[in-house]
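so my prof wants the structure for this chain in the tokens format not the other one, which i didnt know existed until like an hour ago. anyway here's the sequence
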Amino acid sequence: MEPEAEEDAPSPEPQRRSICSNCDRPTSVCLCHALPLPPIRTSTRVLILQHPHEARHKLSTTPVLTKSLLHASAVTARRLRPGLSPLLDRSPPALYLFPSAPALHVSALRPAELVRPDQQGLVLIAFDATWKHAREMARASEEFLSKFATRVCLGVDESVGGGSIYDSDLILRKEPFAGCVSTMEAVARALRVLEPNGPEIEERLIGILREMVRLQARFLKPVKPRPKLLKKKLEGKEKSESSDQG
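here's what i got, hopefully its the right format
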């Protein structure tokens, strides 16, 4: 008589990553040591509209930004509309970051002239999404924002291929155009102009971002440049060399 076959042992469940309860990141890339305590205080209130897809992205800088700034918050949606944010429902003086015409360059702003004495303070709005989704979100939100907000930009060149979203030897996320930066870096650069101690705030935020990149880079493979952008970049270089020789 054949011995009864033993039942297959159940396969072990995949081990879930341990998550830090403070910074909400995996413990292997915990950022608690880099987050400012207390969070950085600003007179500018920052509101991030985060696309639902970006909210699930492990490299999103929005959660880190909202933990770094005392007056920063985020909402997840595809457009800004009445009833979504109590802050915006009060129609405060506001700026929203998006690099397309018509937009005033952030360096041309005069913070003292943006807020009247009877108003509570300036609100800075940024869109956290891929380039395509951010464009859609900005367009869908413009009817609402046009009542109280001004569009500003940091500068972007769609004719030039973009580099890394972060200043790192390892490309973590590829940007489509030159001048595109992460949400956290964009806010940092804007606050440099808007806040009295703006350069210090920018430096602290960029420092946190660099530490995030350093930790994350150990677990990611380098991203190869997009072929079309690389080809365009090489063609531009060849034209430049040709004109120099002529």
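also thought this was worth mentioning. Confidence is low (pLDDT under 50) at residues 156-171, 175-179.
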